[in-house]
Design a protein that fits this description.
By secondary structure, the protein is of the alpha+beta class. The chain has seven helices and 13 strands. It is elongated and about 70 Å long.
């Protein structure tokens, strides 16, 4: 392996053989482009080609594997569509970073999730104010219409890239000092679980298109699909918060684990 000049991106020395001689021999019967995809997948899954490693170009695949340009193009195109590689026009194709994951069945601190991936979490406060509860917020929090409610909008970033828009309403009877916190240094999760320990939560997950203002905050197109979690949490018998957590679908996936084994 070597590195391309100036950008620190690892690149394959295809001249020395990225796959080795006769790499396609013994491949399962089927379209050649599928076999090419499997070869590339194998290098990535083994860790030999880490994120940002330069994948052989169409010309390199043609020369080394003896396949047609059409076959090489289709293999790379489908891998890009599946999010396995990213293609940069005029530069080449590179192994994509794995999507960040967020828990589906649990309530977790996004800052901790990002740090566990070895990345840096930062936050930008878009709004922090006291509002009058609209009817839908009144219903969600179990308070009166027009009652005071805290409303915050925060953009969480992973390595400087917007990862989540958090649009949250908080019951001030449960967390009276919420609006006084510095959420560039901590997170609403950390503060709220400290003052009102979580007893239960409700999740609703949807695939949505972002509103215009949300797309701007996430630095995506309004046509880009997103993952939305609508969440309410309770402490004892009081609803603490109702929040919309919006993730760019191209960067995140939902994941969860549950055990169906009965417990005594």
């Amino acid at each position: 392996m070597s590195k391309s000049a100036g950008d620190g991106v690892e690149t394959a020395l295809v001249g020395q053989g990225a796959f080795g001689a006769h790499a396609l021999q013994g491949a399962d019967a089927g379209p050649l482009y599928v076999a090419v995809k499997q070869l590339i997948h194998a290098r990535i899954d083994s860790g030999a080609w880490p994120p940002n490693f330069r994948v052989p170009s169409e010309n390199e695949l043609v020369n080394e594997l003896g396949v047609s340009r059409m076959t090489a193009n289709r293999a790379l195109r489908e891998l890009a569509n599946e999010g396995v590689i990213k293609r940069v026009q005029g530069v080449g194709s590179f192994v994509a970073e794995r999507k960040g994951g967020t828990a589906l069945f649990e309530v977790r601190n996004i800052a901790e999730e990002i740090r566990k991936r070895g990345h840096v979490h930062t936050a930008e406060i878009i709004r922090m104010q006291r509002d009058s509860a609209a009817p839908e917020i009144s219903d969600a929090l179990g308070i009166g219409i027009g009652d005071v409610v805290f409303h915050s909008i925060i953009v969480h970033q992973e390595n400087g890239v917007p990862a989540q828009v958090e649009d949250r309403y908080v019951n001030p009877a449960v967390a009276p000092d919420y609006a006084d916190q510095d959420f560039t240094q901590t997170t609403p999760y950390a503060y709220l679980t400290a003052v009102a320990p979580l007893s239960q939560a409700e999740h609703v997950v949807e695939a949505v298109l972002p509103q215009g203002w949300e797309a701007k905050l996430l630095a995506i197109s309004p046509a880009d699909p997103c993952l939305l979690i609508r969440r309410r949490t309770w402490s004892a018998n009081r609803c603490v918060t109702a929040v919309r957590l919006l993730y760019p679908g191209a960067r995140y996936r939902m994941e969860g684990f549950f055990n169906t084994q009965s417990r005594g």
